[in-house]
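Retry 2 of 3 after timeout on previous attempt. Resubmitting structure tokens to design endpoint.
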């Protein structure tokens, strides 16, 4: 089985059942999936995914010979008493890790509104923070932004129709105007909090770093997560090259943003 056809593209809880967890990705042909919670087998449902989104079609071009699957499992009510969830791709005697998650990370997302940020950037010349994305839950959501003291800010949020997201959540009806965007005058603090709250009182909170230190930590965390996913697919030699390029790029960006310090040729 080739490592080049082992990929998890996304994972989420189903909105209509907070115990059901779904993982979507690519595996090799004639490969089965086995799931374990702290070493104990969990029954799963594996379904071939024939209709792909634009993002998935772009990924599919890089993974010829792979099969798109949706793996759905039901987590126990006492999930908090466990530590790790692991899924393996099995092909004959070949057994490779396909997906792994800490239970404490799953608990942070279980039963809460789900969201994705398409854009999160600072326009430093204009002192403006731009945020855009989408958010859904079983009930309509309220979106607001808080300062570092967790006090709501007076920010105008523009909603937009996202039929691609509606199609993604086929298990229940979600608002078609689930897209959002906002332009925020650059804050003086080190961070902001994006809060997404549904009508049942459940909420998801996302921290947005605005200082150099917070931005660096956020990028480091993002690259770390990408490294783990990329390693499962391509192996560590390829990721070393990517990580080096990313680190050099970020170093140049960081130098260019420090007042009074010029980039050297």
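Retry 2 succeeded. Sequence:
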């Amino acid at each position: 089985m080739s490592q080049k056809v082992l990929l998890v593209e996304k994972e989420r809880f189903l909105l209509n059942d907070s115990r059901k967890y779904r993982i979507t990705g690519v595996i090799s042909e004639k490969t089965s999936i086995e799931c374990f919670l702290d070493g104990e087998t969990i029954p799963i449902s594996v379904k071939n995914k024939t209709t792909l989104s634009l993002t998935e079609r772009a990924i599919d071009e890089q993974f010829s010979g792979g099969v798109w699957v949706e793996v759905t499992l039901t987590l126990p009510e006492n999930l908090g008493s466990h530590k790790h969830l692991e899924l393996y791709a099995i092909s004959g005697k070949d057994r490779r890790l396909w997906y792994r998650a800490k239970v404490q990370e799953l608990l942070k997302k279980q039963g809460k509104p789900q969201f994705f940020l398409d854009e999160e950037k600072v326009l430093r010349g204009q002192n403006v923070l731009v945020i855009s994305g989408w958010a859904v839950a079983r009930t309509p959501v309220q979106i607001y932004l808080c300062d570092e003291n967790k006090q709501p800010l007076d920010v105008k949020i523009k909603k937009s129709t996202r039929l691609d997201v509606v199609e993604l959540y086929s298990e229940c009806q979600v608002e078609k105007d689930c897209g959002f965007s906002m332009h925020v005058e650059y804050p003086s603090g080190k961070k902001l909090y994006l809060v997404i709250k549904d009508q049942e009182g459940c909420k998801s909170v996302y921290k947005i770093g605005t200082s150099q230190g917070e931005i660096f930590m956020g990028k480091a965390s993002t690259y770390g997560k990408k490294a783990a996913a990329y390693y499962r697919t391509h192996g560590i030699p390829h990721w070393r090259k990517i990580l080096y390029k990313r680190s050099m790029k970020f170093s140049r960006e960081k130098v260019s943003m420090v007042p009074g310090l010029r980039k050297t040729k």
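Attempt log closed. The radius of gyration is 20 Å.
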